[in-house]
Amino acid sequence: MQRIRARIERVSNADTRFKSISNRAPDVNRLASLGDLTLFFVDDDSQLFMVDLGIIGGVWKVVLSEPVEDIESIAAGSGDKLLVLWSTSSAYIIEVDTSFVRTGKPLRVLKLGSEAFAARPGLKIIHVEWHPRCEGHIGLFTSDSSFWLFNVAKSVEEEEQRILVGPTNRVIVSFAFGPASASNWEVLTVYFTSLDASIFALCPVAPHGLSLPISVAASLVSAAEKRFEETIPQYRTAEDSSRMLEDAEFGNESSFLGGDFPQKAEPRRILDFQKLKTDPTAFAADPRAEDSSATWWTKQARIRLGWVRESLIAREGDPTRAIVRKPRSFSPQMVPLLQGPMYLRNEALSTDRIQRDCHEITVLDNSPTVIFRSMAGNRIDVLLAHEEIEPVWKLSSNGVEDSGDEEEENLKAGEEVAPGLISFEQVKLPGWSAEETVNRRSLNSIGKVFALRGKRAEPAVFVRCAAGLLCLRMPWLNMLESNDPEQVANVPVSLLSAQIATGHSAPIGGAGVFTVPEGTIGVILTSEGLLQISSMAKSMRDWGIESAPTPIARRKRDEKDGPSGSAFETHLGSVVASLPSPVRLDTGAFSKMSLMEAFKVLLNRKTNMQGTYFGSFAQLHELITERSTLCRDLTREQRKRTEELEDIIAVTQDKSSSVKRKLDRCNLQYENLAARVRMVMQIINDGSAKLSKAEERQLADYKLRNAELENRRTRVQGLAQAARQLQEEVLAQRTTESSTRSNPLILRTADRKKIHQALEDHSTAVQRALETNDELCKRLRRLALESS
């Protein structure tokens, strides 16, 4: 019921909120950090300044090689050499050299996407963010619903990748890259949020040259192979599966494209209640039926397996790392599909449209993934990703741009496959007073979350509010990996405390959280030029930065203990203390199984909107569970039979090799005896009428050898008979197993025929040799009689 009401609410508000975002101001953040103690900030005149916190008076105006105008925000890369200055109209890359700044030398300025954006006049930049794991890669989202990925180390003019995100009926306002330390597909995921607070995901988004631990790459390949094995046998015969696997291994991209789009939901989740009108008996049919859903999921499994095998390669010279390269056999049509909107469990509905507006999304580097959604109305939603995301591609035929029908099908598919989220906590922030004037730029800055990078002693984030920087401590964060809802529920809720406060007349011009050797610090830059710094230990230092022309001076103020150094700081602390504690929502659905059972209970519950669909869903769930169990049992039995046949083939090959070796030894002995017989016959033909004693002994030895030959002939005949029996057994085994659908012995029929023919030829040769031997023996007997 909650899901239906949420969907009705989004549709009713669509006409006023999904029009345009060209006039929306970006999130203002004029402060960034490079290195441990070096800060950069931009004033209202788009002038760039550098501050060295380790030097008294260490403030310099940065000289640029070319002027930049109307700068709204600044962001620093993962290294210590690159900055990006951007607004809605343009973005600039700055190559930083602190020695140049101190000596007044100009820094190099490069305009981002000058050629890529040239053919798109009027294009607006919505959000910019550096990739947290691949240095030199930066992502942009623009007003034409496109996600751009640039590799500034190679080119700042042309993009490395461009993905048309869509859908067109949603206003995307921000994005964030997935956790950098994730060991699954989250590391290649980009999360988006729309103005109506919907969450979307795009996977895979892999910068070319991205370095991953070899264990992470191996886990992605293993997951793709497992998914392929689970999907293909449900809809295909064994012969088709072998062919598909071969296509995936060799990157046959022509077989990946085209085809039908899914008309049914994936069995593990049905997000559209209207689809429950389908007759449940249809799911009890042959699982190998060629329905559209089977075809769609089959192609997705093939594309995924082909992508991981072509994109992930071992790094030369470093066996512990793997890199991502561009898939060579994938055409431009193969772009990831936007998954969403994600279903949010426990989401609190609001009839106030402003309360539903979202302007920022932040992803915490944690497992499982934690997402912060900054909402209008001074609220932050803490969301947990309890389901693993999987890569999904568009199945389009027109390249980057989709037709109307294909776009509609992609919208449906993206909603069906999107994983779910849990709305875990809601945090209320101190807002603006009634007499204050709030502009759009200041409103977008409220609720911005700054996540701590790297290892931290205490799990916490900094949150930017109307007139200060708050610290949100989350003691439950380290217990999420236990997957124990009761344990997480018993941990105290998050604690919100005041960290840095500014005056009512000094709105924030920038904020950030940085890691220094002494620990983690929070920094605020006010519009009056006041730079305030606070550490996690709540010791604060203030510097004032004058806005006069160069030389810019900085005056150090006295250190103050705690956040109560002024009357307003005390007021903000009391405001935070009077706020309600973060609301802990339901924690009973951290696993897929418990979530599925919760859906089943919910849909069987008697409500005012009771219809004919709820009972059919329960029956459908039982049929799907039964069919899945049956498919697993059949697959297990088929694998067991295949292993038994492989064992029989191995034993047969060993026996054939042993018989062949024995026959080769017999042939060698026969040739040696035949040579000696020829030698004796030559002596007899020479007319030796009288035999010497030595010759008599040789004749006696020959008779003895003849007897041994007779014995060996008998053994050879026995081996030939055994070979015939083994051949008959192999033929009988082949006849018995030829009735099964997948008979691996059929592949070896030609080899067995060759072995059978070789055995027959060898038996004929042995028989001829024995006949020749008998004839020679008779002649020797006659000679012996004549000699006596």
Features:
alpha+beta, single chain, six-stranded mixed β-sheet, 14 helices, disordered N terminus
User: Could you estimate the helical fraction of the residues in percent?
Assistant: 25-40%
Query: Separation of termini?
Result: 118 Å
What can be said about the biggest beta sheet?
Answer: 6 strands, mixed
Shape label: elongated
Strand-residue proportion: 15-25%
What structural class should be given to the helix and strand makeup? alpha+beta
Mean pLDDT: 71
Cα gyration radius (Å): 39 Å
| Number of DSSP-assigned strands | 35
Low-confidence blocks of residues: 1-25, 235-291, 349-354, 433-443, 538-568, 587-595, 605-614
Helices, by number, come to 14
Can you walk through the features of this model?
- The protein is an alpha+beta fold.
- Among the domains are: 206-335, no CATH class; 429-580, no CATH class; 617-787.
- Helix 12 (613-685) packs antiparallel against helix 13 (693-737) and helix 12 (613-685) packs parallel to helix 14.
- It contains 14 helices and 35 strands.
- 33% of the residues are buried.
- One of its GO terms (cellular component) is nuclear pore.
Brief synopsis:
Keywords: Coiled coil, mRNA transport, Nuclear pore complex, Nucleus, Protein transport, Translocation, Transport. The protein is an alpha+beta fold and 788 residues long. The protein contains 14 helices and 35 strands.
